[in-house]
Amino acid sequence: MENKILPILYALLFLFVGMTFGILLIYPQALNEQTMKKQSTTKIPLSAGEYSASINIVAVSNEGIGVVGKGEVEIKPGKGRVLLNTNPFIEPDTQYSMEIAKEVAESVTGKSLAKQDVIYTIEAGKAQLVGGPSAGAALCIATIAAIEHKKVRSDVAITGTIQPNGSIGQIGAVAEKARAAGEAGMKLFIVPKGQRNAVVYEKKETEKRGPGFVFRRIYYEPKIIDLNEAMFEQYGMQVIEVSNIYEAERFVFED
After folding, report:
1. Which of 103, 139, 145, 230 could form a disulfide with 53 if both were Cys (CB 3.0 to 4.6 A apart)?
2. DSSP character at residue 188
3. What is the CATH number of the domain that holds 141?
4. How many domains does the chain have?
5. How far apart are CA 146 and CA 37, in angstroms?
6. Would you call 134 a catalytic residue per the annotation?
7. Are 85 and 203 in the same domain?
8. pLDDT tens digit string along 243-254?
9. Which pLDDT does position 24 carry in this prediction?
10. How far is residue 151's CA from residue 131's CA, in Å, rounded to a whole number?
11. What is the pLDDT of residues 157-175, one digit of tens each?
């Protein structure tokens, strides 16, 4: 009898642990979504006037080199439009991320921008084209800062997409962007959850000698590095992960 009961007890225990773990993983995101929905139903019009803020953004040039630029938001009386003033050009998915950045900022602050125009400006240095939505989180933070009259720290850069529920999604070329932030003198680089460890490729070379010839083989070997350790050692810059806009807010504003 005991031989039959024990497997059942183990199965029930395994099911209970699995359900508990699943709830712990899902609950924070569900809570964020619930909070966003609650805030979005209580939005009040933003007071008339002009608001602005800027933030460091990190892009990648056509040559695959990370570059640090500026993202700026201006909020002026208007018709609820999202307008773009860019140098360089940006791709459609970047434009869409600006729409999401504005909507999330409205939900976070509880303010409606239905009677304001939001003008986003991206200056990306040597990059001739900004592609992808990786500036979304930064522009959302800048929009929140403008609405709430907060100042973004000048020694912080952030990269990541912004989702309608306020979560921050992963991006590409995180190692190149971290290096650019460190070289630009940033003290803190904020990346999406799960991207503190990055894959880099180390150049390797082997040599084989024979009678009258030398055969050299060059190849690149993938290696996983902890960006926080590597960037702090080289530039004195911390790299931290965040999963949503609420976590990011704790690090980016001046006291």
Report:
1. 145
2. E
3. 3.30.230.10
4. 2
5. 22
6. yes
7. no
8. 999 999 999 999
9. 44
10. 27
11. 999 999 999 999 999 899 9
58 falls within a domain: yes
Distance between CA atoms of 111 and 208, rounded to whole angstroms? 68
Q: Domain limits at 112?
A: 48-195+228-252
- State whether residue 234 is helix, strand or coil: helix
Residue 124 and residue 205 share a domain: no
Rounded distance, CA 107 to CA 104, Å?
Answer: 5
Confirm whether 167 is a catalytic residue. Answer: no
Please give the C-alpha separations between residue 100 and each of 14, 92, 154, in angstroms, as whole numbers.
40, 13, 24
Token code pair at residue 26: 């899902």
If asked whether residues 183 and 108 sit together in one domain, one would say yes
Choice among 107, 167, 177, 243 that is catalytic: 177
Helices 2-40, 92-109: inter-axial angle, 10-degree rounding = 90
Per annotation, catalytic residue among 61, 97, 107, 134: 134
- Residue 41 falls inside a structural domain: no
